[in-house]
Backbone:
């Protein structure tokens, strides 16, 4: 078995795919009306996005009675401050709650949390 992609639901697959394409510098390899897949230029596991009409933004941090996040993405970076500035220019929002000093939690345009961090 080979994991080829992680799929994120969104109110608009194309909009969210464009955000991550710009954030990561990846290429679109498949585009349909309600489905988009991006991958790194050298290949490997990608991200796919599907339009979900009933999509609800997850709460971060979790709150009882609200939509919980089902996953989040961890993205390793060399320079946390530069990567954070880049994330903000692509449309990410810095989350109010930051649980760790060496990690920055952001929300993508659909509300999915993702973390930028410098690996040890």
Residues:
């Amino acid at each position: 078995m080979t994991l080829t992609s992680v799929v994120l639901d969104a109110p608009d697959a194309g909009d969210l795919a464009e955000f991550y394409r710009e954030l990561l510098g990846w290429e679109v390899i498949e585009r349909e009306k309600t489905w988009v897949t991006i991958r790194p230029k050298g290949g490997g596991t990608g991200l796919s996005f599907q339009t979900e009409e009933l999509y609800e933004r997850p709460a971060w941090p979790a709150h009882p009675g609200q939509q919980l996040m089902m996953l989040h993405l961890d993205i390793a970076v060399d320079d946390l401050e530069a990567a954070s500035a880049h994330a903000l220019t692509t449309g990410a929002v810095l989350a109010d709650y930051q649980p760790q000093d060496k990690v920055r939690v952001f929300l993508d345009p659909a509300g999915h949390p993702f973390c930028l961090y410098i690996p040890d």
